[in-house]
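Reopening: structure tokens for the zinc ion complex, inputs below.
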Amino acid sequence: MGNLYKENELSQRPTWDEYFLMLAKLAATRSTCLAFPVGAVIVKNKQVVATGYNGSPSGSAHCTAQGYCYPDLSSCDASKSMPSRAVHAEANAIAQAAKHGIATNGASIYVTLEPCLSCLKLIISAGIKEVYYETPFNTGDSNIVRDSFISEDLVIVKQIELTESTLQRAVGFLLNPTSVATEEISLSSAYFNDKV
Ligand SMILES: [Zn+2]
Ligand SMILES: [Zn+2]
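Re-run output (same inputs, fresh job):
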């Protein structure tokens, strides 16, 4: 029975892609601009080297605290009238790497929202080769520019998603104390104890 539990447990482990996307989703919880919560994680050789989230530049007032991007606006819905104050999550992650002298060349980035063109250009120039995102963002002409970079082999851009079982597992871990013995472990311990 112990082995059966172990197999189930192993099959529930998130893939590396899921793991890093979940970390990006956690980073997004720190977003301070009300327009979009976005999180990003830069990964090199399966190691997280930098993280970022959508928010006002370091030291500037948070939109979440004042309720808007600019005093004249009633929210962060700046796209119609003024540019967003937020540094995008991907740009923040790259800036964090730069600030701490961490090379991004050859890295991958996991983002909760498909990078805008400005961020995609920054990603390419930072030497990041693979982009994995959860939610599409670009439309129309932006897609044409994005696809031209892809066809030049500058970068891979791929949408990924979490499987239902990974989501269930993660939600369970978040909602409850994580490192407690599960019923199955207790049962298998009992099983092994009986054998001893
Ligand atoms: Zn804002
Ligand atoms: Zn962006």
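The pocket of zinc ion (ligand 1) is lined by residues 33-35, 63, 69, 76, 85-86 (CB under 6 Å). The chain has a mean pLDDT of 88. Marking as resolved unless the reporter disagrees.
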